[in-house]
Each structure stands twice: as C-alpha cells, then as structure tokens.
Write a structure and sequence with these properties.
Blueprint: H1 3-11, E1 18-24, E2 30-32, H2 35-39, E3 45-46, H3 50-58, E4 60-62, E5 68-72, E6 75-81, E7 86-93, E8 96-100, E9 107-114, E10 120-131, E11 139-150, H4 155-160, E12 162-166, E13 171-177, E14 180-186, H5 192-195
Parallel strand pairs: 1-6, 7-11, 9-14
Antiparallel strand pairs: 1-2, 2-3, 4-5, 5-6, 7-8, 9-10, 10-11, 12-13, 13-14
Length: 204
C-alpha cells in the first residue's frame, strides 16, 4: 500500500465507498465501467495507462468480508471480479517458471483446480493487504491462501506439465511445478467464491 494513500486515509477517513466502476477481467486487465456499461451489463473499457495499472496493483486489497478493492487515496473502489481475485501467468525465470499475479506479486502454488468449463485455477499463497474493519485506515500485510484463474494463454503450457485422468464424473491428475507433483482436482465454478471467501460483485 502506497504511503501517500495511507496518509490520505488518515486525513479523510470517511470518504464514501465506490461500487461497480472498476472490474478485473479474466485476463487480468482492469476495466473502467461507466454508468452506461453498468446499466447495460457491459465489461467496460480496459485501462491502458501503465502508471495507473501499477498504482491499482500496489493498492489492491481485501476486507474480512471477502470484498476486493482498490484504495484510491481516501476512497475505497470495490472491484467486480469476472472470475477470481487474482489472475495468474506462468512467466519464464532462471531455471523454469514463476507464477505472477496481475499485480506482479508471486504466487506459491499448492494445487490446481479444473471446473466444468475447462478453466484452470491455481491455489496457493499470495502476499495480500487486509483491511481492518474497525479502523479503516489500518492494513495488515499477510501471506494467505487464495485462488487465481490461470490466464488462457498459459493453458497449453499447463497441459504440457500435467497428467490427467478424466471420465464422466471426475477430472483428477497431477501437475509438475518446481520439481514437485501437485494435485489437480475438480471443482464447480459456483463453489469458488464460497471456498476461497471472496465476493465477485460487491454492493453497498
């Protein structure tokens, strides 16, 4: 969390929250949703400004209710999630790959999940900022378990690293990551938000 953001919270602690205007899509892009986009259930415009994207990423956090938001100075802008709070990419690194979120933070994977639509999700530890519900100006940085949708550009690479057993009722297997076999298990997409404690469309 940026120091200037924390200072503005102390100076103006009671600025009204904002809902519906910012979204995170399935490819890890932040989207601005104006009144027309919200009224017509449109995805909104992708934010192209690199510095603004980085600012959002540095000040992305969640509260104990499972609502994710961008702390924009004193204002809390809650994020509508197309899929999950995090979108993961497999990025080449020395000796292999790293998993990075849309905020550029590293994810330490524990397992993978596959849903009824063929989406792949990675579960693991991510460093996150958690808002204190009693004192809205207080944030705690924690490394906690969460879930990230794997970017569709990385599905072929994931497939190359995986062995699966598929039949009419199940989808299980294993995934090679960092020299370790990690489990792949089935999940229904509707279960994700409850299991990993996040709200896809926060509202006031």
């Amino acid at each position: 969390m940026d120091e200037q953001v924390l200072r503005s919270l102390i100076k103006w602690p009671n600025v009204p929250h904002c809902f519906g205007w910012l979204a995170l899509d399935r490819r890890g892009q932040w989207r601005m949703r104006d009144e027309y986009a919200q009224a017509n259930q449109l995805p909104g415009n992708v934010i192209q400004h690199a510095a603004l994207n980085e600012f959002i990423g540095r000040n992305y956090a969640h509260d104990s209710l499972g609502r994710y938001f961008f702390q924009n100075g004193p204002q809390r802008v809650f994020v509508t999630l197309d899929a999950t709070p995090w979108i993961a990419r497999m990025m080449p690194s020395e000796g292999g790959y790293r998993l990075l979120t849309q905020c550029g933070t590293e994810m330490k994977p524990h397992s993978a999940l596959s849903d009824e639509k063929g989406n792949i999700y990675i579960t693991g530890l991510i460093s996150q900022s958690l808002s204190d519900q009693i004192d809205g100006t207080a944030f705690t940085k924690t490394e906690s378990l969460s879930v990230a949708l794997l970017h569709d550009h990385d599905l072929d690479l994931f497939s190359e690293q995986s062995k699966v057993q598929e039949d009419a009722c199940s989808f299980k297997g294993s995934w090679q990551w960092g020299g370790k076999d990690m489990p792949i298990e089935p999940i229904h997409s509707a279960e994700l938000s409850h299991r990993f404690h996040f709200i896809k469309a926060p509202s006031n």
